[in-house]
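Entry 12.
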Amino acid sequence: MGSFRRPRPRFMSSPVLSDLARFHASSPALQLSNASVWNSVQSAVMKVFQGGGLQANELYTLNESIRWLLKTELGSFITDYFQNQLLTKGLDQEVLEKIRLHQGDSQILILSDMWATFFTETLPTLQAIFYPVQGQELTVRQMALLAFRDLVLLKLHLEEILGTATSIPPAFTQMLLVLQGVHEPSGPSMEYYQLERLVEIVISPYLNNVLHTGNHLLLDKSQQVNPMPALA
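Predicted 3D structure (tokens):
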């Protein structure tokens, strides 16, 4: 859900759990307890990326665990860790690596299948697990979709493949349109324009982002208009 030069969330390295525990102003026993709770959340998230479902009452337990952690010194790190570590690990190891085993039209097909699973199963479960978390600028859903765009789709360099593809699966088109609808807080990034180039290949006719091209069009038109003669 980047090389954007304005302030925006990035999918970069984040403090590891051992770093987070240092911020606990509590007893060692409580530090260990909170670390164990957070490890259980991480394990559940990776299980979801691997295609596993949650057990009975596990979602309730995870929600309560996150609510507890949000009240501790770990709370301020949960959003960053989800965005920069869990999404990166899950998408890279469980999605991107599997797609890269295929080439050509086959890669488009497997990407479409992986997207369908992510969008209909993984994403709703992640939203449910992190329901207690309130992002400052982006929701959990937006973070996950932007991560899929930047860490999966744009890593595959699909322009040439799409240009010669015999057919485009409906799920692939849906993926492009859904990801295009996710807007970053500070406006379109370079990754957004990379996505638009893929949309333009798949969907025809297609009108490019107005904010990106509108100023140039207005400037060209203004140069073609003769000024009004001054009134006597």
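Annotation: Residues 17-220 form one domain. Residues 1-27, 210-232 have pLDDT under 50 and may be disordered.
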